[in-house]
Write a structure and sequence with these properties.
Layout: H1 2-9, H2 12-20, H3 29-42, H4 46-72, H5 75-86, H6 93-96, H7 101-123, H8 129-145, H9 152-163, H10 174-198, H11 213-227, H12 236-252, H13 256-269, H14 284-308, H15 313-338, H16 342-361, E1 370-373, H17 384-392, E2 399-402, E3 418-423, E4 426-431
Parallel strand pairs: 1-2, 1-3
Antiparallel strand pairs: 3-4
Helix pairs in contact: 1-3, 1-17, 2-3, 3-4, 4-5, 4-7, 5-14, 5-15, 7-8, 7-9, 8-10, 9-10, 9-13, 11-12, 12-13, 13-14, 14-15
């Protein structure tokens, strides 16, 4: 509700300038466009919002497949990696919790830019200027979506180092021109990061980075615990061991694809490694690295087995695909059933109750109405009823106050045109008398 309200209240000119001037440190302006457009089209109806959101999720699956195919040159590995990527119970929010649209949009444009870059470098040593402009625009949109986007130049540099043959340092200077372009993207990222670190977001302690080994260990322990579907964070030494073992294993078998996958895992999560931990959805970009790593490793085992029985290689691949899908589905379904995630469902239930009941009690409010809630179903530190009623009645001038926000000094009902309370799960109108 806050995201929708914030987007709706932001002046259109500011929405446009914030998306263009990526260095001004504004709060994820591409997400503001998403909410603003959907509210303008559908109003307070959540169905179109979720339809578009699910379409974005499916688009990201397609982009993931394209990326994995470009990197591995294997339809089998790309299909297996996409299967692994498609669902993880701890990342379930990216499929239906629209407050996570910033991560979803960031993923779309980060990996679209990466696919365009890799596809272009495979076609010609020196990418066409028009393609480079398109990649830069995708990077701009990714940064407008979320801070995770700054990993893109580093990921593309890792691709060049790990997977581009040295022979592409040809007489045309193609690789030098590509490195110059990556340098340009890196400059964009530095300018963007400077704006973020000096902008309004860092005033919030939840977004303030603290550069220390302890903070790094805490965040990686938290996210790896989520990744492995553990009930809590891993021990610090376990988290560091996982990072070290996966890197050493990739180097030991001399697999450039595994090394590139590891770089996605590490650098894809690095932008949030020094801020307080949050939901597993922030691993959405780096989750591709884990999916690639697993798919390449499993594919290598399939190839080793197939050497002895070449006739059965296709059958083996199909069996492995089914078994991996079954195992992933079973593990994640068990986690879903074991943890009902009340924290994820309670807020929508409270919102639906307020919307349906208040709309029944009062189908319309006069302009610039003042409303008081003597009690309600929401917490003591939020303005959600203001967001809901302003959006529901499409009135930016509504005044919505709550006694819960001033517990030591109850507000005077005589100062308000409408007064509501909440008892036994239902809202009641106290003024004017029903």
């Amino acid at each position: 509700m806050f995201n929708m309200y914030f987007a709706w209240k932001t002046p259109l000119r500011k929405v446009i300038t914030d998306n263009l001037f990526f260095w001004n440190g504004s709060f994820r302006p591409l997400g503001v466009v998403f909410y603003r457009v959907l509210y303008a089209v559908a109003g307070f109806n959540p169905v179109p919002l979720h339809v578009v959101y699910l379409i974005l999720g499916l688009l990201n699956l397609a982009i993931c497949f394209w990326f994995l195919h470009l990197v591995t040159d294997s339809l089998r590995t790309a299909a297996l990696g996409t299967l692994i990527f498609a669902f993880h119970s701890r990342l379930m929010e990216v499929w239906f919790r629209t407050a996570v649209v910033y991560d979803v949009l960031c993923f779309t444009f980060v990996y679209l830019a990466a696919c365009l870059y890799i596809w272009e470098t495979k076609r010609r040593p020196s990418p066409e200027p028009a393609r480079l402009v398109l990649i830069a625009v995708c990077f701009l949109l990714a940064m407008d979506a979320k801070e995770m986007a700054i990993a893109l130049p580093v990921l593309l540099l890792c691709y060049e180092i790990c997977l581009v043959p040295g022979r592409q340092l040809d007489s045309t200077g193609g690789r030098r021109s590509r490195f110059a372009f990556l340098g340009f993207l890196l400059v964009m990222a530095v300018i963007y990061t400077t704006g973020k670190l000096t902008g309004p977001m860092v005033k919030n302690p939840d977004y303030t980075p603290h550069y220390s080994v302890a903070r790094f260990a805490d965040t990686w322990s938290t996210y790896l615990g989520q990744l492995l579907i553990r009930p809590g964070p891993l021990k610090h030494r376990s988290a560091f061991a996982i990072l070290a073992v996966t890197l050493v294993a990739a180097a030991a078998v001399r697999s450039r694809k595994l090394l590139f996958a590891w770089s996605i895992i590490f650098f894809g999560l690095l932008p949030v490694s020094f801020v307080p931990g949050r939901g597993a959805f922030v691993m959405y970009i780096s989750w591709v690295g884990w999916s690639l790593y697993a798919a390449v490793a499993i594919g290598a085992l399939e190839d080793r087995i197939g050497r002895y029985q070449p006739r059965w290689s296709l059958a083996i691949s199909c069996i492995v695909f089914v078994l991996v899908g079954y195992r992933m589905g079973k593990t994640n379904l068990h986690d879903q059933r074991a943890d009902p995630r009340h924290w994820l469902y309670d807020d929508p239930a409270r919102t639906r109750a307020l919307v349906s009941q208040i709309k029944t009690l009062q189908p319309a409010f006069p302009a610039k109405t003042s409303i008081l809630f003597e009690d309600d179903a929401f917490g003591n530190d939020e303005y959600t009823p203001l967001f809901i009623l302003s959006l529901l009645y499409h009135d930016p001038d509504l005044t919505v106050d709550r006694d819960k926000l001033s517990p030591n000094k109850p507000l005077n009902p005589a100062d308000y045109q409408y007064v509501f309370t909440f008892q036994d799960g239902h809202y009641r109108q106290l003024k004017p008398v029903e």
